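Chain A, query sequence.
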Amino acid sequence: MLGRATLSRHEDLARVAAEFSPIPRGDDGEPVFREPWEAQAFAMTLALYEQGVFTWTEWAAALSATIKEAQASGDCDDGSTYYQHWLSTIEQLVRDKGIASEQTLEERRNAWDRAAHATPHGQPISLANDPL
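Chain A, predicted structure.
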C-alpha cells in the first residue's frame, strides 16, 4: 500500500506521462511493474525529481523523445519496452545534467550484469554479488 505522499508523487508522475504514453496500469488503477527493476526505475525517477534534478515538464519531454526515437527505429510499440525507455530517459537526463558520465553508467551496467550472473537462481540480484 502506498502512503498518501507517495501516492500523490506517483500520481503526479503518472499524469505527466499520460500526456504522451500512459504508465501501464492494472485493473485497480495502480501502476503495473512486470519486473522489480521497473518499479525501482519508477522510484528513482521520483527521487531524482524530488532532488530537483529535473522538472516534470523536462521529464515528459525527455521520455516522449526517447519513445518517439525508439518507435522511429522500429520499436514494437506494444508496451513491453515501456520501462526500457523509462530507464534510457533517466540515464540520458543524468548524463545531460552532469550527474553521471556514460563511463560511470556503463560501469554500473556491467556491475549489475556480473552480479546477475553470479546470483544463484531464484535469489534477488544484489550488487554485493558482483565478483569484482
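Residues 4-100 form one domain. The helical segments are 4-18, 36-50, 56-72, 82-96, 102-118.
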